[in-house]
Structures are given as C-alpha cells and as structure tokens.
Amino acid sequence: MEEPVEVIIVEPLDTDLSLIEALGANAAFRLSSVVGPSEGPVGEWFERRGVKRFDQLAEVERLLPGVLVIYLGKGLPPAEVVERATSHGLSIISRDVITHLAAQPLAERKGPATGDVIGRYRRLLEDYFPTSRSSSTAVKLTACLTEVTTIWRATGGAILTSVTGATLSIAAQRGLDLPRDSAIKLDPASPLLISISRGKHEIFNDFPGELLPGVKAPSAVVVSIKASATVRGALVLWSDEAEAFSKDDLGALALFAYYLAMIIEVDEIGERLGENLVTDPLTGLHNRKQFEYRLEQELLRAKRYTLNLSLVVIDVDDFGKYNAACGQMLGNLALSDIASILIKGTREVDFVARIGGDEFALVLPETNRLGALGLAERLRADIAGYPFPVPENVDAMNLTVSAGISNFPSAAGADGDLLAAAHIALEGARRGGSDTIKLWDEKLEEEQ
Prior knowledge:
Blueprint: E1 5-10, H1 17-25, E2 29-35, H2 40-48, E3 52-54, E4 68-71, H3 79-87, E5 91-93, H4 95-101, H5 104-107, H6 117-128, H7 137-151, E6 156-164, E7 167-174, E8 183-185, H8 191-197, E9 202-205, E10 219-227, E11 230-239, H9 248-272, H10 288-305, E12 309-316, H11 319-326, H12 328-344, E13 351-354, E14 359-365, H13 369-384, E15 401-408, H14 418-431, E16 437-439, H15 442-447
Parallel strand pairs: 1-2, 1-4, 2-3, 4-5, 15-16
Antiparallel strand pairs: 6-7, 6-11, 7-8, 9-10, 10-11, 12-14, 12-15, 13-14
C-alpha cells in the first residue's frame, strides 16, 4: 500500500469539522500539523489526536517537498503562505479540491479507467501545482490533460477556455487537429456549448453531429471549470467506445477541473503582477536577463567577503532528436519537467534559470566545486531516470543532460568569467559523450 500523504491544515474553521474528520478517516492522508487557532471544536479535535499546532506556516517543523498544504481560509492563500510553501516544494490546494479528494468513495474506486486517479492527481500536485514557478500555464494544462486522457483511456480530450458567446479557445488538446489557442465557434444550439455555458458536468452518448470540429465520437464527457464562481471553460473527453463514461466518473473528473480552475486563477494573478517580465514563459524559471543580473551580484558578494560561488550550466543531450520523435508539445513538457527536477533538487538560496533553448543554469552561493559537483551529479541521475512523456506510437525515450561547472575562486578561468568557464567545461563534457559532467580546469581551456 502507498504511503499516506503528509498534510498541513492552514486556517481551518469550525464549520470545516466534518471535512477534517473525513480527511482524518481517509488512509490516504496523515494530518501532521495545523496552522490556526487552538480554541473551538476544530482546535479541540486536533489536540485530542495529538496533531501539532502552529500560529504560522513558517513555524512548522516538517516543511518537506511532497507535503500537502490545505488552505481552508477564504479566497486564495495569502502571499506569505504561498511564498513559504513554494520555496520548500510544498503543494497547495484549496477547500473545493480537498472536498472531493477526501471523499472516501473516490479513494475506493475500482475499474480499469480510474484505479490510479489518486496517484495521478498527487503527481500533478507535486510537479505542477498552481503556485509552482517551474512550469508555464500552458505546460501545466497540457500535463493535466495528458494525465486525465491516460487515466480514462480517452481517444482525445481538450481544455476549452475563454467562453464568449459561442466561441471557445483551445488551451490544450490531445487528438484534436487544431493548434493551441485556436478559437472555435460552436452552434449556439450545441448540447456541448449549452452544458459548458451553464457550468454543468454531463455525459453524452450518441452525440448528434460533431462534438468539436473534426470530432465525432459515440461517447463524451464534459466537466465545467469554475474559478471564483465564474465558468471559465470545460474539460472535455471523448472516446471511440460506446458508453465509455459513467456518472461515477464525474466526481473524479471534478478533481481535475478544480485543479485547472486554480491554475487559471493563480497564474492570471501572477501575470497581472508582471512575473512574466522576469521569468521564462515556458518553464516558469528565471530568464536569461535575471540570471545575468543575479550572477553578477553573487560574484560581487563572493569577491567582497571571500566566499565560494559555483555555477553549473546544463544542456539537454540530443534534444532535437526527442523533439523530432515526440513533437514540440511533448518537447516543451519535457523541458518543464527538467525545470521542476532542478527546482526540487536545489536549495532555497540557489538560483535556477533557463538561459537558452534547452540550456539551464544554477547559481550556487557559498558552494565549493566539490559541493557543486555532487549536486550536479544528483540532478543528472534524477533526469536520466525520469519517465519523460512520449506518444503512444513511440518507444520510451530517455533524456540525459551534460553539465559544466565553474567556481570562484578556485576554477573561474583566467579572467574570472564564471559563465565562459562553465561553457568551456560543458564543451569538455560533450566531447566526453552524453550524460557527463566536467569541472573547469586549465587543460580544458587549452583544448578550446
């Protein structure tokens, strides 16, 4: 049996007691900490069960990657909660999502299409949760749609957003011969459009005419996506098999619809705050401009206080071959997965950036060359063992990376240019074959 998910409850209300009791009774979860008042029925409930209470999330002892933070307060989590959680690799979900996730019937679901609902959903929370900065909105939506179509063995699926009259925008798609962000216009009398406009969850058997442009399917299911009580779109799946979906599937699919709603709402807030000016739009990592500024500042600090500073430049081996075999959409998803691995494998003080098409950089303050080498080796192994997505007609493909490391003051090159020295080391790694790491030294520079 899979280990239970460790859970931190934040800002519970007395009216949440029945929900909390359901969580406590569900073997899939282990309530480890609560952030909130100690008085009242909820506070007493946690105290009787020995769950540790804290006044702030920052005080919680076990802020470890993979821990689930459930925010039960009103609206979106406060900025300090989001910042603390994301900096430690924690997943944040809201009241709406956990209400469905805690439902015991869902945990007990059986059947070939939905047996791994919980596991797949957990993976999304851990790798692509809404407040993660390691993925763009487009990649998060694509990842969710990939998981959902796989679980339900759907012939195809689409995430439709920007509901304006009879016009919808394709935010992500599988099995639909239309590019992302394409606008499609449905017949105002279409049962699909009516269902989406009304915010309904519905199953269609023997759908009349085309479900979507170019799609005729004997069975389909639509689940509305709502953010702040507003219908933002729908998750639509279809199958070539008759009656492939049942009413029992709607509750599980609603989990993913709530997840999509959080992605849309939280990421839109980020865009309004201008985060796209400092981040790479595909992976959500810091961009090249921010990297150059941070490297300059850290190098000045290292020189002023005689500190170690290491730089790791990472390049994906033969990424063009992967892109050619799997397509650009899955190639982008793979780059985002690599970004997520890098974020999870580094410290809060480290700086991770995408500085080229398939090139990443890690600025590691107060880290000597051997420490940087050990970190790079762990990340290299994590990436080499990661199950990157491939189309159904393509055999599994492994992606590997090569890396070059420079260090101040011991291995920074003759002119102290950390980036140039790291690139020299990277070229040396490439000459040695793929899946290789090299530290800069004078011999490598002489070989250039």
